[in-house]
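Lecture notes, continued. The same structure-token format from the folding unit now serves as the input rather than the output. Read the line below as a description of shape only.
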């Protein structure tokens, strides 16, 4: 069976027509579908690799039984002029497929579902984030205007879908309910770590050091609360602690460097760029002392779960699925940098760190690949059986 996968993810293309991802959709991510379907055709945005892109920091997404059908951006007002051509490409693609998987929220996903309905093609939805929050905290005012419209469109689409996979346990299910068959299954991919990971973390905490390193993973957008993190550094500047904030993620960091300079903490903030997913990111996480996720919008943040799997003590905002992962004393209100600062100061305690390291390491076991894979595969097998009988 041939299935299409539609989303707004940006893939990078080299001169040999190989497709790369900045981390979220490497080839191994397609294996979850290839366990059930014979071929996956990816409908998404694309960008040619140029000198500004370091290909060594990208993950190869191309591979056996994966095809790509690039479409132009349809997310902006300007992109609306690309919508007709995008619909043509999507229609031609779906006509040769047996089913559709649409990852929402995404304009390409919604458009693909509309086309699938016209073609009477079975479709399923992966619900990975809250579109209202994502647009409400957009840097442009038009985002706030569009937030309730996009939220309504997604809510209506999810409600009528026969198969929905949510990455959260409760949050997205409550905000975007469905009448169809649904499961809760994060899209994280974590292999069980070696048994000495927690022991190493405990020794690191016990030994202590003069400088405390805080880590944050996320694209360099407003959504990830990077300004909140930098302002929190300024808030605790008067305290006698040597603290450094390291940020891992793609995007332009100049705006945030300027903010750090304005607040007088530029020497405390380091932008580490992008690393290939997997071992390189885990090694990065092993170097930090405290992980923070001060996001303004999320689904269920993969980076936070990865940090927890390395035994990182962690702090996060109260948005979306983050409270499903962290305890109450590790949460702060979004954008509240003073509250985040106080939590960071409270975390600079060996006993607290060891307690949270143990708790997070054990909690992350629920998100190991082998645990989620069984649930996810059963869901896609049910969808395949349904699609075969249509």
């Amino acid at each position: 069976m041939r299935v299409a996968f539609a989303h707004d993810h940006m893939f990078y293309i080299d001169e040999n027509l190989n497709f790369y991802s900045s981390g979220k959709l490497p080839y191994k991510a397609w294996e979850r579908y290839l366990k059930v379907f014979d071929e996956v055709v990816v409908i998404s945005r694309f960008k040619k690799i140029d000198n500004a892109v370091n290909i060594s920091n990208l993950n190869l997404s191309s591979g056996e039984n994966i095809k790509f059908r690039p479409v132009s951006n349809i997310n902006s007002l300007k992109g609306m002029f690309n919508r007709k051509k995008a619909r043509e490409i999507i229609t031609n693609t779906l006509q040769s497929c047996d089913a559709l998987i649409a990852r929402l929220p995404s304009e390409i996903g919604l458009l693909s579902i509309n086309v699938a309905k016209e073609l009477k093609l079975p479709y399923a939805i992966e619900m990975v984030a809250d579109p209202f929050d994502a647009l409400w905290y957009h840097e442009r005012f038009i985002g706030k205007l569009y937030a309730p419209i996009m939220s309504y469109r997604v809510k209506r689409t999810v409600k009528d879908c026969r198969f929905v996979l949510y990455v959260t346990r409760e949050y997205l299910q409550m905000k975007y309910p469905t009448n169809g068959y649904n499961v809760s299954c994060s899209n994280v991919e974590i292999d069980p770590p070696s048994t000495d990971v927690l022991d190493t973390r405990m020794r690191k905490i016990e030994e202590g050091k003069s400088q405390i390193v805080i880590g944050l993973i996320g694209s360099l957008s407003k959504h990830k609360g990077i300004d909140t993190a930098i302002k929190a550094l300024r808030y605790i500047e008067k305290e006698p602690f040597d603290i450094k904030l390291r940020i891992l993620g793609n995007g332009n960091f100049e705006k945030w460097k300027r903010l750090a300079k304005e607040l007088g903490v530029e020497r405390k903030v380091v932008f580490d760029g992008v690393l290939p997913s997997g071992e390189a990111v885990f090694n990065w996480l092993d170097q930090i002392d405290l992980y923070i996720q001060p996001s303004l919008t999320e689904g269920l943040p993969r980076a936070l779960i990865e940090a927890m799997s390395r035994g990182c003590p962690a702090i996060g905002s109260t948005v979306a699925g983050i409270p499903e992962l962290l305890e109450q004393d590790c949460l702060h209100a979004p954008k509240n940098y003073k509250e985040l600062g106080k939590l960071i100061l409270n975390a600079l305690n060996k006993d607290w760190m060891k307690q949270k390291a143990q708790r997070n390491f054990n909690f992350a076991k629920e998100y190991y690949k082998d645990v989620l894979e069984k649930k996810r595969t059963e869901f896609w097998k049910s969808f395949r059986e349904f699609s075969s009988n249509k």
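Point for the exam: The chain has 14 helices and 15 strands.
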